[in-house]
Amino acid sequence: MPIRCCLFCSTPLTERGPETAIPQWLTDYLGVRHEDVLQAIAQTESGTLRQQRTHALVEAPICRECNDGWMSELENQTRPLLIDLMSGQRSLLALSPEERLLVGRWTAKSAFVLGNSVQTQEEAVPVDHPQNLKEISDTLPAGVGVFANQHDHTGQFSYVQKNHWLRFSEVEQPEHPGRYKIAFQLQKLLLLVAHWPPPTRLVVAAATHVPVWPIETLTPSYYSGIELPRRHDSRSLLMRFSDTLAVLHPE
């Protein structure tokens, strides 16, 4: 049996840290520590859900040094921001550039851990993305975008990995094996980590995606054909939040 290694530093896991897919402080805050949570995975071609199940939040493949070091520091720095955003006490639009970087890095870290539970190659996060996140503290891996929104929630936590993309290009483009979308909902807060390797450009949907990272001006798109979510239904909104992020292929 191959030896499992830390997701973020590739150290053999002779001694794991106590980290779970979602940090213990957050599961306690949400009241889901002893509950099963929704995980949904979709087919690439159609976006149809291939797998939808509930399961306990399992121990993550993270070494003690990473867990007790840079990840612990990131959790401590980001926790007050997340609580205010999850509860709706603070707007996403009020975040400073420094706070956006913190939220972006925390979201990417959490998405990489959640995505690690999906073992098929089609949905895999490139192995260098978690490692780059650890090694470079002032940015995110190239081509990775983090987006957010806030809503009136009906659930505490849900998660979806839908590698389904709306694509803008006059020329048919091949799928890229390094692309992924990982979205999750924490009370009022919707978060999405997405990657399609450069030189493509991520395209947000108007009134749907608030860019967290990178800090740049993005042109919103307006398009029809997207099924509207059930009003205030967190799971339905999370699906639409993932579906409507598009990619623009350069000519």
Question: What would you say about this model in short?
Answer:
This protein is α+β, with helices and mostly antiparallel strands. It is built from 6 helices and 10 strands, in the order H-E-E-H-H-H-H-E-E-E-E-E-E-E-H-E.
Could you characterize the architecture of this molecule?
It is globular, with a radius of gyration of 17 Å. It has six helices and ten strands; from the N terminus they run αββααααβββββββαβ. The protein has helices at 24-30, 64-68, 70-87, 97-115, 128-135, 234-243; strands at 37-42, 49-55, 144-150, 157-161, 166-168, 180-186, 189-195, 201-203, 210-213, 246-248. The strands form two sheets. A seven-stranded mixed β-sheet has the order 2-1-4-6-7-3-9, sandwiched between helices. With 251 residues, the chain is of the alpha+beta class. α3 (70-87) crosses α4 (97-115). Residues 42-47 and 49-56 have low confidence and may be disordered. It has one domain (24-248).
